[in-house]
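Same chain as my last thread, 132 residues:
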Amino acid sequence: MRKILFRGIDKRGVWHYGFIWKDPSDNYYIKEKINNTHYADYEVIEDSIGQFIGLEDKNKKKIFEGDIIKFEKTWSHSEEITTVDWDSCYVGFEPFNEMEDTKEGFDHLYFSDDCEVIGNKFEHKKFLGNLK
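reply #2:
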């Protein structure tokens, strides 16, 4: 079973990982474990929130919705840089190439040791201009 985990960045620029909740004023919080018995709530920026997709990159880094990943297409031996986005039609996460408006299935990444998280679309907008 895949671990359900969210991340979000606070106004100081610190990422928090844990469960997500929203208060009656529509503020979002990550409830993050701070030790074996205590949790803390951190208000995070709504647009930065992303869910762990259940996969890790070649460096064993968890892949989250909103991450920018680089991988080699094994069928064409070409490098691709894409963002990871939710696809409601597919009901799952897919790499999305914003420049070409195309999606690649994650089935190609399950067997790729070359997939690498190189940033996220919230902090690293510079990569988005480099999408093929």
